[in-house]
Amino acid sequence: MLAGIGMTSQRTRARMVERLREQGIRDDRVLHAMGQVPRHIFIEQALANRAYDDTALPLGFGQTISQPYVVAKMIEILIEGRELGKTLEIGAGCGYQAAILGVLSKQVFAVERIAPLLDRARENLRQLKLSHIRLKHADGNLGLREAAPFDTIILAAATRQTPQALLAQLAPGGRLVMPLGSTEQVINLIEHTERGFVETQFDAVRFVPLLPGVE
Ligand code: SAH
Known about the structure:
CATH topology of the domain at 56-205: Rossmann fold
Distance between the termini: 35 Å
Structural class: alpha/beta
Helix content: 25-40%
Shape: globular
Largest sheet: 7 strands, mixed
Number of strands: 9
Number of helices: 6
Bound molecules: S-adenosyl-L-homocysteine
Order of helices and strands: HHEEHEHEHEEHEEE
């Protein structure tokens, strides 16, 4: 059980989980984690009544908190038939998806290029007592060398080409998911198999772009 969860939002969250099930999310571990994390604490007060709607919402700095279905779908692809293991998230924003990952894995690293967003992520995750999630202000294009290799890598920002550093930091047997494309994107899975990197494509999605450098 996560800290800081009031009863108020529990019923709305249960409805969100029901909707995710109807939308085709099957993995009970993922559904359970989505039901645990209070999405409203990651969202500005003015928008809090929409926290459990199935939409992306503005975070400030031109960024968005990801849509619940897309968060659940990407993580389901990553966890199917295995555990997440050591996980790297690129584009933590204010930490919502990192929290879900943190419920599912004991070892989570998340990087974010916009410092004030990372500060908010840190505060939000502290409130939930998810202190095992390591946050870093860095350019995710470079991965996170000091903690590599990763069993799981997830990008929350879109790019037309998978950054080479991320492939180099993906452990054998590891999986990476990312929104692939510029304006039109799809969820792209890359598996590091004995025969090399194998790619599979899933739903069409819309994410903010993966940008270079930090601010
Ligand atoms: N994971 C967040 C989604 C945040 S939106 C959630 O759970 O809602 C995507 C984030 O990726 C933005 O905060 C953006 O600043 C960040 N981002 C974009 N390019 C990046 C890069 N090169 N390195 C790290 N973060 C990046």
